[in-house]
Design goal:
Blueprint lengths: L7 H9 L3 H4 L3 H14 L10 E5 L5 H8 L3 E6 L2 H14 L5 E5 L13 E6 L3 H4 L3 H11 E12 L5 H6 L3 H10 L1 E3 L10 E3 L3 H10 L2 E9 L14 H14 L3 H4 L4 E8 L3
Parallel strand pairs: 1-2, 1-4, 2-3, 4-5
Antiparallel strand pairs: 5-9, 6-7, 8-9
Amino acid sequence: MSKNARNPAIIYHDRVAHRYDDIYRGDYWDFYRAVTWECWKPFLPRDSTSRIIDLGCGTGVWGLRLAKSGFHVTFLDISQKMLDVAHRKAEEMGIEARTSYVCADICDLAELEGNSFQFAVAEGDPICHASRPERAMKEIQRILTPGGILAASLDNKCAGIDYYLERGEIEELDKFARTGKTMWLAERHEERFPVHMYSPDEARLLVKGAGLELTALRGKTVLPVRKHAELLSDLKQFQRLLKLELKLNKNEAWIGRASHLQVVAMKTAE
């Protein structure tokens, strides 16, 4: 068995690939994706010939949307089974010609040439799930063209505090507060892998350390709509809450309420 085959992240994502879309289905996740799209839509390349990469693409939610819009998209994931699902969906949508697929760890993008992508998506927190987030960020910086944009979600450290308090694990909470390190809480022990969560200030340092310039930092979602998902079933209320979320989540005073941080960063001219 290869070393990669024993990687807990691969084991987990291979196993759930066939039902991954169902895990993230429902009104709350529709809202979450709408917030995500509105946060980085203004930064998309205007030229449809621009190359885009969907890092940690999973089953291809974002890459497929972008390919459908006319961009050529490279789908990259550590799980081949996730890529297989994304590929099959591209075929069904009739957009396969505008897609390509790479099975690789986000910490090692040696297969990809430097300065080759105008836009990179890293949603679903693949940077946080990387064994070496700082290395992953530098690899992303390397493959972006000067002026290229990274849109990425990061797990918000503030959102991890309740887990430890609810269990009375004060010593573990102290360690988490200092390091941001925790584990993916899969039921199966062999599927648990390290996760690194970030505060807003730590997210800024992560971006700067990779040689990128922070363009935008938002929380998502700062409104606790996951606890009130019934409000989202009405389209009019969905749109009103979305408008309010986008107004509030760019104010750093609200970011601590969010489960995730939405980062937009640019590679400056070399």
